[in-house]
Design goal:
Helices cover 78% and strands 0% of the residues. The two termini are 20 Å apart. Helix 3 crosses helix 6 and helix 6 runs antiparallel to helix 7. The protein is built from 8 helices and no strands. By secondary structure, it is mainly alpha-helical.
């Protein structure tokens, strides 16, 4: 893949992870109610710091992987992508942005983004299954490929959490529960399709 394609891939796959209902989304909504639209980028900064540590940890272990592990990575990563896609579609049915009250939550949005990320089991499961497989694949294009992928991934986090905070600050003019559900459905389908492609491409490369 070209660097642009890796960046787009990082954005699309990252968006499916960012959209997942969880503590970081709640922290963004809480902060937006208290502090306005700027809370989205601030929460993202804390989230990115947590992910940076994980990316360094995964990348440091990549050189020690045997060459024969490429098929296993493709199968595990692709299967995880497909499963997360199914879970995303299922979660879309009851998804809502009406998760918190105006008085809930306190503290720095940056710290909230960091704490809610590292304390979320979904965060670790995603990175050590889907995330690690994609990072390893992006390194086929060298360090620049990894940077392009992770930049696209972080751009998706920034875009989504900023959109949520702006929407909450503007009384949800930009984003309502119905739109949120549609986005989740679309991302779930994309995840399932890409999961199948990831497995199939890994098998053909091994053949």
């Amino acid at each position: 893949m070209s660097l642009v394609e890796l960046g787009v891939l990082g954005f699309v796959i990252g968006l499916t992870g960012a959209l997942a209902p969880g503590p970081t989304l709640i922290a963004t909504i809480q902060s937006a109610i208290r502090e306005g639209w700027k809370s989205g980028p601030k929460v993202t900064c804390g989230h990115i710091f947590a992910e940076l540590l994980v990316v360094i940890l995964i990348a440091a272990g990549i050189p020690f992987l045997p060459a024969s592990s490429s098929l296993l990575i493709a199968v595990v990563g692709g299967t995880a992508l497909f499963v997360f896609g199914v879970l995303t579609v299922q979660s879309a049915r009851g998804a809502t942005l009406s998760l918190v009250s105006p008085t809930s939550g306190s503290g720095s949005p940056v710290v909230a983004g960091l704490i809610t990320s590292i304390s979320n089991p979904y965060f670790w499961i995603w990175w050590f299954s889907v995330g690690s497989a994609l990072l390893i694949s992006s390194l086929a294009s060298g360090l620049a490929g990894l940077i392009a992928f992770i930049f696209g991934h972080w751009l998706s986090d920034l875009s989504w959490f900023t959109l949520v905070s702006v929407s909450i600050h503007k009384s949800r003019v930009l984003l309502g529960d119905r739109e949120y559900k549609y986005i989740l459905y679309a991302c779930g389908v994309v995840l399932m399709i890409f999961g199948i492609w990831f497995v199939v491409s890994g098998i053909f490369k091994q053949a």
